[in-house]
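User: Structure please.
Assistant: Input sequence and predicted structure:
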Amino acid sequence: MLDRFFSHFRTDLAVDLGTATTLIGVVGQGLVVDEPSVVAVERDGRAVLSGGRAVGQLARQMLGRTPESVRVVRPLSEGVIADFELCEAMLSHLLRKARPRGHRLRPRVLVGVPGRITPVERRAVFGSTLRAGAAQVWLLDEAKAAAIGCGLPVAEPLANMICDVGGGTTEVAVLSMSDTVAAESIRTGGDRMDDALIGWLRRHYSLKVGRPAAERLRIDAGSAWPLDEERSVEITGIDTVSGLPRRADVTSEEVRQALSEPLEEIVDAVREVIDRCGPDLAADLVERGMILCGGASLLPGLDRYLTEHTGLPIRRAPDPRTAVVDGLLIALEQFDRWRPSLQSSDDTP
């Protein structure tokens, strides 16, 4: 009775704490926060600029354009917290932004985490989220959350395969009867693709570019499979020989060549998970295929590329970017059903 009374003043939040983007949903309202996972701070200190509000989109606008007294930091790397203090500052701001007016009690928060996260890294997520203002924290593996969010019948005795390609990691899993049968988590995602482009441009064009420029090139001209109409994009960087600004025209075929290594790593992860499945589940996969989700999965032709290299039918989720947060919201709404799959901050020493 008391818990039901307090529920009118407390918010339950779902947090997809991503390397590149943080998404937060509110039970009963859906997605309410969609911000880059970046923070702007003083170079010689730890204070977040603009009174703690230089977080997300505001901080991203400063990326690569700040004076020497300011630095823009990404508190997460490869799906895990790299800077605890700044992650707490970022989460604190975004959680306040997500909470509806009139809800004064601290929220209960469900966070999606990579499958290969270590016990130390799990405790870091618990600690940072609690210090950011949460009353209680639960964790759920991102692959399971994505499968739930995509509407897969994970509770049935069937093979449900998901591939979540995010900014810092790729999560591949096969689920059946509400549990994970086989899973693989690799630290390859959009960031790894951008780093591959940066290295390729330096080697082949003697051109030095930053990660924002590489990301734009990947989005504008990138693909995993030949396009019906190949593209050419102009990119600006610093000539590594002269040190002066220079432009170069880069084709989509060249971008595809630059992305070959991270794409092969994703294929290897999918094959590894398939190899761990029994014959009956493998037979299910041949018929049911795999769902592709995550922000970096929007790379054109990635579904065709994975089909050609694995033999599985591949289809994209209806909204690949929000699959994880959608699944987290469903888990909160159906809490009694999914509670066995969650790890609670109350259970952690």
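Confidence is low (pLDDT under 50) at residues 1-6.
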